[in-house]
Amino acid sequence: MSKEPINFYDFAQYFKDMGCNNALYLDGYVSRTYLPEQNWIQADGNFGVIIGVTSK
Questions:
Q1: Cα–Cα dist 3/50, whole Å
Q2: Which helix (H) or strand (E) holds 2?
Q3: Please, what is the Cα angle at 4 between 24 and 20, to 5 degrees?
Q4: Is the pTM of this model over 0.85?
Q5: What is the pLDDT of residues 27-56, one digit of tens each?
Q6: How is residue 24 annotated by DSSP?
Q7: Cα angle: 13, vertex 41, 3; to 5 degrees
Q8: For residue 6, what are the CA distances in angstroms to 3, 9, 12, 51?
Q9: Please, are residues 41 and 34 in contact by the beta-carbon 8 Å criterion?
Q10: What are phi and psi of 41, to 5 degrees?
Q11: How far is residue 6's CA from residue 18's CA, in Å, rounded to a whole number?
């Protein structure tokens, strides 16, 4: 999730630079983040679960 507006080119380039072959875009209108460690709590909607798997 980005706290600032971002365009699709920069979004894709970030993941490409990190070595990611696939990424998922979630619309900011319906997406929410719950990350209390960084004081980022958006509890004003329904949550779904996404599980990410990484390997190196």
A1: 19
A2: none
A3: 30
A4: no
A5: 656 677 778 898 888 888 776 666 677 776
A6: -
A7: 30
A8: 9, 8, 10, 23
A9: yes
A10: -125, 110
A11: 17
